């Protein structure tokens, strides 16, 4: 009895676009964000045919959809032109720089992490919109190259230690003042000198 041959299935149509490091900044989260940005321009029936595999954007469709494949390929090629300049959103910068949300907020507020503007989006399936800061990919690249995150964390640690010392000093003075009022004597912790408060605020004794 002759053996049955399995039918040969037609190969899929495949197009690939390697994503440059200047676009992904070494982040899989950023690569996913770029994918979503490009998918948004594709017809709904084609969106899931585009994916990111090992830093490469891949479009895969059945051969019978050659016309849709050609159209989708043109759209992807056009959207990827200049994609390395697409602003970096919060979840991406946190992954790229390996920082926490608290650090992002702190450094954005004090100006160390410069904002490139804001972006407003509507949450899927909801009427509410949210607005958030975005960042220049070239600025983020500079922060990476100069290892500024390490410097900022060291500065923050020094500031936190100084704040703890100041808080401890103020608490010590408060206890001394309270004791002095209770006993009716002058506190020995805080000399009665003109300008002492300003001197104390500057932390010149510490």
From TrEMBL:
This is Uncharacterized protein.
């Amino acid at each position: 009895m002759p053996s049955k041959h399995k039918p040969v299935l037609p190969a899929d149509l495949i197009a690939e676009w390697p994503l440059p490091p200047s676009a992904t900044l070494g982040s899989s989260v950023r690569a996913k964000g770029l994918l979503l940005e490009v998918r948004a321009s594709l017809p709904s029936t084609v969106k899931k045919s585009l994916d990111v595999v090992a830093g490469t954007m891949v479009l895969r469709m059945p051969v019978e959809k050659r016309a849709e494949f050609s159209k989708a390929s043109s759209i992807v090629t056009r959207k990827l032109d200049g994609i390395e300049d697409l602003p970096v959103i919060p979840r991406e910068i946190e992954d790229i720089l390996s920082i926490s949300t608290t650090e992002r907020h702190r450094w954005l507020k004090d100006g160390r992490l410069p904002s490139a503007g804001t972006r407003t989006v509507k949450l899927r399936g909801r009427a509410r919109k949210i607005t958030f800061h975005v960042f220049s990919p070239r600025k983020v690249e500079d922060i990476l190259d100069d290892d500024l995150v390490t410097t900022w964390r060291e500065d923050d640690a020094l500031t936190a230690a100084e704040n703890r010392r100041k808080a401890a000093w103020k608490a010590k003075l408060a206890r001394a003042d309270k004791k002095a009022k209770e006993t009716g004597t002058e506190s020995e912790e805080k000399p009665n000198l003109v300008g002492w408060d300003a001197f104390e605020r500057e932390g010149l004794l510490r």
